[in-house]
Design a protein that fits this description.
- It is a single chain.
- By secondary structure, this protein is α/β, with parallel strands linked by helices.
- Helices cover 54% and strands 11% of the residues.
- The protein is built from 17 helices and nine strands.
- Strand 7 and strand 8 form a beta hairpin.
- Helix 9 runs antiparallel to helix 12.
- The longest helix has 30 residues.
- It starts with a strand and ends with a helix.
- The structure holds tryptophan.
Length: 431
Amino acid sequence: MKPVRVLTGITTSGTPHLGNYVGAIRPTVRASRLADVESFYFLADYHALIKTGDPARVQRSTLEIAATWLACGLDPEKVTFYRQSDIPEIPELMWMLTCITGKGLLNRAHAYKAAVDKNAAAGVDADDGVTAGLFMYPVLMAADILMFNAHQVPVGRDQIQHIEMARDMASSFNHLYGEHFTLPEAAIEEHVATLPGLDGRKMSKSYDNTIPLFVPREQLRKLIMGIVTDSRAPGEPKTTEGSALFQLYQAFASTEETQALAKAYAEGIAWGDAKQMLFERLDREIAPMREVYDQLMKDPGHIEKTLKAGAEKARAIATPFTTRLRHAVGLRPLNLGAEAKAVVKPQKSALPSFKQYREADGQFHFKVLDAKGKLLVQSQGYAAPREAARDIARLQNEGLTAVASLGRQLELHADIDELGVALDAWRQFQQ
Ligand code: TRP
């Protein structure tokens, strides 16, 4: 079975806090370890430009978020971990999507509408202070998702509308230009609680009530001691309901530990002692990661290298896929005129051929030839013939997308455009 593709990004405009950790980072890192998923995690630094005009902050936040993800256990060997701005195909796709997206659709985006409503309330022009970047935010996000044909996009509830818009754009594009995009779905973690902040409201940068994930131990203790509680004295029973302290504890502790704290509440534990328990529990989970984080932050060059390697992996998919999309919309090499028509109505005589053979060393190989017998691509060796057959089938079914995922298993002998045309013709013929 084909693995499920999961993709998510974090905007690089702030410092990760406990709410981000519990709500996004921890669940996605866990999910990335499952066997049958293929995950794409990225730093949405183009998106950051919409939120801030402070270059130092964008750079700092990119470093902090990358280090956080790695310190929390993301394995860049297993997942594709990259920085949005290293993939120039994304803004290119954004433009293609811009051209098939109704302006009215974007008018209805919550974030844009909120800005307009605020202006109306203030009695100023509807678009006062609204950049075209804010307006286009959902299109950039759709390009992030559709570029990698993600099936599932784990996001917070506030982002659901964006995923729906990405679906709309994908189907408009598919309708006009053929089936190129998978329709993505939002994956909402029902059981992941929104974490309360220091003041009991939702932990959020905009409320200035966050606990940064990787502050030094002593500072973490101080912040926790500052969490609001009620005025009940030591010995007086406390209620767990509506207690920010309790909810924070619950997000980190096991069921037994949580029950033990509930019991302590009922028995009148002093707030100071409860805070100390929370601090110790948090620090137990965070301390080992903090150590890695501190090391990583001292070596930005290492993170830069990791991201560049991730970008290479991502572009092995994005580059050929963009070639295919360019082809689909008519941005084509001019000397491919005749073949381009063949894509629409391929003749049997225009089809490529797939040949399996065995080398002297006993390994199985295959090659793809175009209709005229020109060598397009050749595979590395396989131990078993059915492995070669499986990859041939992938090329036949997925076209250039498969070329991207097969990566080094293939050796390209012609222009990728020519291969794209040949594989497209094969698929068109089968339909
Ligand atoms: N908009 C998301 C946020 O602020 C970040 C983001 C950008 C994203 N592109 C994405 C999330 C693509 C998921 C998929 O939280």
